[in-house]
From TrEMBL:
Keywords for the protein's UniProt record, in alphabetical order: Exonuclease, Hydrolase, Ligase, Nuclease
Organism: Paracoccus subflavus
SUPFAM superfamilies assigned: Metallo-hydrolase/oxidoreductase
InterPro entries tied to this protein: MBL, RibonucZ/Hydroxyglut_hydro, Xnuc_lig_assoc
Record-listed E.C. numbers: 3.1.-.-
Stretches of the chain forming a coiled coil according to its record: none
The keyword Nuclease is assigned to this record: yes
Domain of life: Bacteria
Protein name: Ligase-associated DNA damage response exonuclease
GO MF: exonuclease activity; ligase activity; RNA endonuclease activity
Taxonomic classification: Bacteria, Pseudomonadati, Pseudomonadota, Alphaproteobacteria, Rhodobacterales
Amino acid sequence: MRADQILHPTPAGLYCPPGDFYIDPIRPVPRALITHGHGDHARSGHGAVMATRQTLEIMAIRYGTDFAGQTQAADGPLRVGDTTVSFHPAGHILGSAQIAVQPDHGPRIVVSGDYCRHPNPVSAAYEPVACDIFVTEATFGLPVFKHPDPAGEMTRLIASMAEFPERPHLIGAYALGKAQRLIMLARQAGIDGPIAIHGALQRLCDYHVEQGIDLGPLVPATAKQVEAQLVIAPPSAFASAWVQRFRDPVIGFASGWMTVRARARQRGVELPLVISDHVDWPQVTRTITELAPSEVWITHGAEDGLMRWCELEGIPARPLRLVGYEDEPE
């Protein structure tokens, strides 16, 4: 069986005919396998959903318990149609997984979803999975993107808080995964006191605590008087009246896109923190080199840049041109 008979792009997303399922479909389908809980990969309305237990629980928090007709936790290798599928840690966010698809006859394909190889205190570490075809994202698939050690970025945050002790530091971070990682990085850097969080983060932070991730003391940033110097909020909050309750704040943002300083200036970010939950250029190229697949398929992001690198390395590659996925939510 040829690879494109096992998995190929459709308007609804990646489809596997021998298993009769889609991976991270962008519209409702009868059967979906979901890599992780971010909204551009995990949508409601499917007939049946298979994902890790944590991803299923995150989807229930975000969409309600009836987000799909049926759900099944991915525990161990499972038969789906004429394929065997297995889920492996991706290092991206809590519950994130790569999906390995092994047909009864044909090459093994690993769909990485979004993945990260920097140590992440709120996610199981990325696990290399041997495969014939590796499907990789290319969010930061250009040589300019070389993300620094997150601990160094937290040192910059702490230095700013010490330099401006009277100014609250408002840091934008995506509500699922990035916000909790930022809190844990702050704890590891020695910030032991209360951290204020926007109300939109509360339930997901509570869930991380329920899963055994100690985020330390958190206080709501919804009161008129916020006693914490460090405040974390989703990016959407910075365009609302909510931000006006803070006097002379230091505006920060945690994202791999903060590598592009012009983007930081356009957003009015005084303290850009280059912290990403995606592989950067050295990580994605190292991953491909280590896995040594016979072919690489490239999804959303800088597909052309990674295609060119694969060409120079003599690795067969093709872009999937999937639509509907955000490179990294801002």
